[in-house]
Specification:
The chain is mainly β. It is built from one helix and nine strands. The radius of gyration is 18 Å and the shape is globular. The termini are far apart.
Length: 144
């Protein structure tokens, strides 16, 4: 009996996944009133090589990666990224796409001197951008 129930549950899960726009990953819609933004530093700020970035979010909540809750997501910080990651695919994880899947709302960055850009993008429990993408304004900072 347990095997039958497990098989039925897996069949239902597979059907639900296949019914989404992106094979294997659910598509999450961002609420119309949601907004993600960088609290600090401010656009145009001069900062030291080590500085704190604070993330802001309105109209939604923060939940760790892997946790599926309505109206929640987690932050990804895009450093010197010119184009947003492709829609419907997980946000890459590298030196330019920083993941905060633990639900963090701030981080300390170390960047080389020069001009850099920062932008936030909210991802769902699978690191997939929301539809439409929920991104902050791209800011420019100057590292001394």
């Amino acid at each position: 009996m347990k095997r039958i129930l497990l098989a039925l549950a897996l069949t239902g899960l597979t059907a639900a996944v296949m019914a989404t726009d992106t094979p294997g990953l659910p598509v999450n819609k961002a609420p119309a009133d949601a907004e993600v933004y960088i609290i600090t530093p401010r656009d145009g700020a001069a900062v030291g090589q080590e500085f704190t970035v604070r993330f802001g979010l309105k109209g939604m909540g923060v939940a760790p990666a892997g946790v599926s809750r309505e109206r929640t997501g987690h932050h990804h910080l895009l450093v010197d990224v010119k184009e947003l990651p492709p829609a419907g695919q997980p946000i890459p994880k590298d030196d330019n796409h920083l993941h905060f899947g633990g639900g963090q709302t701030e981080t300390t960055l170390k960047l080389k001197p020069g001009t850099h850009t920062l932008q936030l993008e909210l991802g769902d429990e699978n690191h997939v951008p929301f539809d439409p993408p929920l991104v902050s304004k791209r800011i420019t900072i100057h590292v001394k």
